UniProtKB/TrEMBL annotation:
It comes from the Bacteria. The lineage of its organism: Bacteria, Pseudomonadati, Spirochaetota, Spirochaetia, Spirochaetales. Residues 145-198 are annotated as: Disordered. InterPro entries: FRG-dom. It holds the Pfam family FRG. Residues 179-193 have a biased composition (Acidic residues). This is FRG domain-containing protein. Transmembrane segments: none annotated.
Length: 301
C-alpha cells in the first residue's frame, strides 16, 4: 500500500488535504525539497555519516555524549540561557547545525509547505523535481507527558516508602520496641524489597535522556531562538538514529514541481516566507532576493 496521500497541483489542493484528509490527533509535518524516493531519506542528520553505521549502539552513544559534552563546554558565553538538561542542550546543538539524533518537524503545515517549495531542485537531466510534505502518523509519546509521568512516579515512590515506615500495624516498630530491630538492622532481603520501587524510579529518572529512549519521542524545544518560535519547530528524538523511518510511520503529500512558483507567491501573500520564518538579516535578504530577482517583479500569475 502506497503512503502517498495526494499529489498537489496548487495551493488550494494542499489546504483541502490538510483540512479534510488529515485526521491525526497531533499531526507533525516536515517539508523536503526532494522526496524520499529521490534520496532525501527520513532520518536524523547523524545518519548521513556512513562510518557511524559500523559502530555498535554503545559506541555510537559514547560518540554522541562526548560531542555534546564538548559543545556544552563552549556554550557558556554564547547564549543567555543555559539548557537545564541533555534534551535542551542537544536541541540547541541541533539548532546550530551539529549532527544529532533529532529530526526537525513542525506543527504548522504551511511552514512545511514553505520548506518543500522554497527551492525547486533539478535531476541530473535538468528536469524540475517534485517535492513533498511528510505527515508523521506514528504518534510517538511526547517528552512533556513522559516527564510528568516520571515525576508522578517518583512522588508516589517516595510516599510509598514513607508510608511503609509508619503504618506497618505497630506504631512503636519504628523505635525498635517490643523486640523489633532497629531500621538499620533489617536483613538484606527485606531492604532490597522495601526500596525496590524507589530505586527503579530513580534509575529511570537518571536515564531519561535522548540517548536512552527505547522508542521515538517528540520533544518541543525551548525557544532558544526566534526561528524555533516562528517555525513552530518540534523535534523527533529517534531511538535508532541510523535507521530511516518506516513507510507505515508517515504519509507523503507530493508537491508537483509545476506548482512551486505559484505556491511560493501564495505563501508570501499569507506571511509564511523568508523574512517571517527567519527573522534576521539572512531572512530579510532571502525575502528581498525572492521579490526583486526570483519573482518576475512580484507579478502574480
Amino acid at each position: 500500500m502506497s503512503n502517498v496521500l495526494h499529489e498537489v497541483e496548487n495551493f488550494e489542493d494542499y489546504l483541502r488535504i490538510i483540512k479534510d484528509e488529515i485526521s491525526i490527533k497531533r499531526p507533525y509535518y516536515r517539508g523536503q525539497e526532494k522526496r524520499v524516493q529521490d534520496g532525501y531519506t527520513l532520518w536524523p542528520s547523524l545518519a548521513r555519516y556512513e562510518y557511524l553505521k559500523k559502530k555498535s549502539p554503545t559506541e555510537l552513544t559514547q560518540i554522541e555524549k562526548r560531542t555534546l559534552t564538548t559543545f556544552a563546554n563552549h556554550v557558556i558565553g554564547h547564549v543567555n540561557h543555559i539548557p537545564p538538561d541533555e534534551w535542551g542542550m542537544l536541541a540547541l546543538a541541533q539548532h546550530h547545525g551539529l549532527p544529532t539524533r533529532f529530526m526537525d518537524w513542525t506543527t504548522n503545515p504551511l511552514v512545511a509547505l514553505y520548506f518543500a517549495t522554497r527551492n525547486t531542485k533539478k535531476d541530473k537531466d535538468g528536469t524540475l523535481m517534485d517535492s513533498a510534505v511528510y505527515v508523521l502518523i506514528q504518534q510517538p509519546d511526547n517528552y512533556s507527558d513522559l516527564k510528568n509521568q516520571q515525576e508522578k512516579s517518583d512522588l508516589e515512590a517516595d510516599d510509598e516508602e514513607d508510608t511503609s515506615q509508619t503504618t506497618d500495624g505497630d506504631p512503636y516498630s519504628q523505635y525498635g520496641i517490643d523486640g523489633e530491630s532497629e531500621p538499620d538492622s533489617y536483613d538484606d532481603e527485606d531492604e532490597s524489597s522495601d526500596s525496590s520501587v524507589k530505586k527503579k524510579s530513580l534509575n529511570y529518572a537518571s536515564s531519561f535522556t535522548p540517548f536512552d529512549i527505547t522508542a521515538n519521542v517528540i520533544y518541543e524545544p525551548p525557544h532558544v531562538s526566534q526561528r524555533i518560535r516562528t517555525q513552530d519547530v518540534v523535534l523527533l528524538a529517534c531511538f535508532n538514529p541510523l535507521t530511516p523511518l518506516e513507510e507505515k510511520d508517515y504519509l507523503e503529500i507530493v508537491i508537483k514541481a509545476d506548482a512551486h512558483e505559484s505556491i511560493r507567491k501564495r505563501l508570501d501573500l499569507y506571511g509564511v516566507f523568508d523574512k517571517q520564518l527567519f527573522p534576521d538579516l539572512d531572512g530579510m535578504a532571502k525575502w528581498l532576493k525572492f521579490h526583486e530577482f526570483e519573482c518576475q517583479n512580484g507579478e502574480d500569475e
